[in-house]
Please model this.
Amino acid sequence: MSDALVETLHSSLLELDQPKTVAAARAICSGDGEPSAEQAVQALAAALEIVGQRFQQEDWFLGELVYAGEIAKQAMEILTPHLSALATQSSGTLVVGTVAGDMHDLGKDIFITYARSAGFEIIDLGVNVSAERFVEATQVHRPLALGISCLLTICAGGIPQVIEALAERRLRDGLRVIVGGAALTAEFAAEAGADAFAPDAVTGTRVIEKWSGV
Amino acid sequence: MNFKERFLTALAHEEPDRVPVMGLIMDPATVNAILGRRAVDIPALLQKPLLRGPLRRLLNSSWFWDRMYYGNSSGAVESAIQLGFDANWTIYAFMQLANDRETEVGLAWHDVFGRVWEMGSDGCGNMSLNYTRALCDTEERWEAWAEAKAPLFDRVIRNATRFHRRLVDKYGDRILPIGYAAPGIFENSWQAIGFVNFTRYVYEKPAFIKRVVDFHTDFYLRYLEGVMQSGVEVVLGGDDLGQKTGPLMRPELIEKLYGESYRRVAELVHQEKRKFIFHSCGKIYKFLDYFIDWGFDGIITMEPTAGMELAKVREQVGHRLALIGNLDVSRLLVKGTREEVEDAVKSAIRDAATGGGYVLSAAHSHPFVDPERLRWMVEAAHRYGEYPISL
Model:
């Protein structure tokens, strides 16, 4: 029975069946602790891993990536209060924001959903984030990596400014910077001094998993 | 051949005298640089307490909006003529300045479809407007918005007709103004609701989404009729179906939700003996066969930074679609050398121009596209684009 519930949670997410996924999460939480919320979260993460693979293989598309992430978020809201403190330990902290002048959050938010499911703690600075705020957040949180999103070409020039500001404050050593968004290319990322370019949220998560050794 | 014959011959997949070149000029920064105009920083003016009220009233008048939009678009067309383009797109929009607590200036533009466009600087001293949020994130809000704004939709169509007619009348003997009907049905559907909610409703509230799509299809067809009444020969529909690594939504789902709408669009344009070309950013190989099926005459953009290659597109579609594009605007037309621009032009002509069905253009526009490099592009097309192609 317990394995069946976890299996239902996993398979219903992959079928984009929101009611069934949420019902399975609730059933797990209202049970006798077997299966545990930790097992359920692992099943969700495994399902999202498959969603990411399908997206990268172009079997699934952005809409499915987003909707799967939204269903997983709803299930996580049900499961999180039932997790033990040990289970909520993160694989590392990431500071994430959209560059100054740019108000777009879709790409950043999709990345956050998938990075969280991979076990990272996210400090979301929101949109229109100045270089100074990226620097302050880096000083405060000492993240494993900094993620900068940019949709607009006219704002892309803000990215090297962030990286220069980090270097000026001697915060660049040991800090990885990853950039992504419609306005950017791998060539731009290299010129700006970033460590990696992510054309999509799934790739970004994979890159940071490698950096963290997960 | 004149510019019009050249362009329409190419769209008909016949070889004109030389490869036509289309301008995508629309950004005030580009227009100002070419025509020697000064930038107007509207967001900065709106921050001055004494100016804020009167300026806001002015900005919300149809008179100003039409005048500003016409002024910029006529400047874009004049710029394109100066640089030697055969055609240029002309974009009409209508928005209203509304109170908005989520923005730094406390104001944002709301378009008639329910989007929020936030003001910023384009980096060259002009106002830039960017879609950032949805105003109708629930079914109830969308229904209320559509009802409340009903009178505006007709006004938008009338204004668009007048706008395009003025451009055709003034410039039609020197360049082909391309009527631009955008945003399209897909963007108008999801952007007023937000992508996350729209995606959710596709699965959870399909009847609502069908109503939204039907509503925007009806509006778009009426808008197209209005644009075509102006006398434009070619209509360009803009509807981004792709993102950097692939389709925004599953192509089969887009066919199910929008296929019939797009077919009606193409049929209407063809009934009026016009041509319909379609703009979509992103990696859209998986849509190319649908475009043919829907009856589109051509596509424009083929974003190289999203992996779109002219030769590959031509191989996939043959001469069933005319291709317009796709010189890079991430680097080449911003800071590429003259030799690099010429090489890119030669490469594009080699990849797509044989047998007609090809119009050279930049992949897109933004304020940092350099007018001098656009001029190099046009000159290279004149130098290397004569038929028969011998590259």
Remarks:
- Residues 21 and 207 of chain B are 44 Å apart (CA to CA).
- Chain B touches chain A at residues 104, 118, 120-123, 128, 130, 132-133, 195-196, 199-200, 202-204, 243-251, 253, 281, 286, 305, 329-331, 366-368 (CB under 8 Å).
